[in-house]
Amino acid sequence: YLAGVGISGLVLGLALQDSLKNIFGGVSLILDRTYKIGDMVELDSGQTGIIADVGLRSTKLRTWDNDIMTIPNSYLAESKVLNFTQPSGKCRITVPFAVAYGSDTDFVKKVVLNELKKVPADVQDHKVAFVNMGDFSLDFKAYVWVRSWKDRYTTKLQVIDLIHKRLNKEDISIPFPTTTVELKK
User: Fold this and answer.
1) Contact by Cβ (8 Å): 128, 109
2) What confidence tens digit (pLDDT) does each residue in 149-180 have?
3) What does the angle CA 24 – CA 27 – CA 31 come to, to the nearest 5 degrees?
4) pLDDT in tens, 45-75
5) Closest by alpha carbon to 172, among 135, 125, 150, 140?
6) In terms of C-beta density within 10 A (0-12 exposed, 13-18 middle, 19 or more buried), how is residue 26 classed?
7) How far is CA 12 from the centre of its chain?
8) Using an 8 Å Cβ cutoff, are 74 and 22 in contact?
9) For the residues of 112-178, what is the DSSP string, one character each?
């Protein structure tokens, strides 16, 4: 009889282990105020969304497709989660772009920086950096600060469009990967 009770206790303990981890994770998330409803986060998995609810056992994340993803609190307590909302909503976006070899890098930076000034922002600290000499292109990054994470996606699309149109207008070539094949007789 005692052996049966011991095994039952062990089975019950193992069954409750995940639930207890989630509850303790939830308590720590709530006490630490790690996330608030409305925070925009990105999980280790790359999934992004807005915190819809923080409960004792799980946290609910509203995805961009308006689905609710339920995440065990033990996962959140043990994972690296990027919170775009804290400490403030202001954030920087990065837009990589490339031009063909032979382009004047100073001219490219000047032209793109002038386009970035058209983007509304609280912080006019936009930058353009020449970051790499790639296999088939000169690689740049445009850095733009936005007022809120809510503006991040639409502003990034706007910046991509502005850069593309300006490079075309200035007749600055945008490269694409090419492969040379030699046929031997």
Assistant:
1) yes
2) 788 888 899 999 999 999 999 999 988 877 77
3) 145
4) 888 888 898 877 788 989 888 889 888 877 7
5) 140
6) buried
7) 40
8) yes
9) HHHHHTTS--SS---EEEEEEE-SSSEEEEEEEEES-GGGHHHHHHHHHHHHHHHHHHTT-------
| 23 Cβ neighbours under 8 A, 6+ residues apart | 56, 57, 73
Query: And the tokens for 146?
Result: 């936005």
| Full-model pTM | 0.62
Task: Please answer whether residues 85 and 70 qualify as being in contact, where contact means their C-beta atoms are separated by less than 8 angstroms.
Answer: no
30 token code pair: 């709530």
CA distance to 10, 134, 140, 160, 176, per residue, from 167 (Å): 68, 18, 13, 11, 14
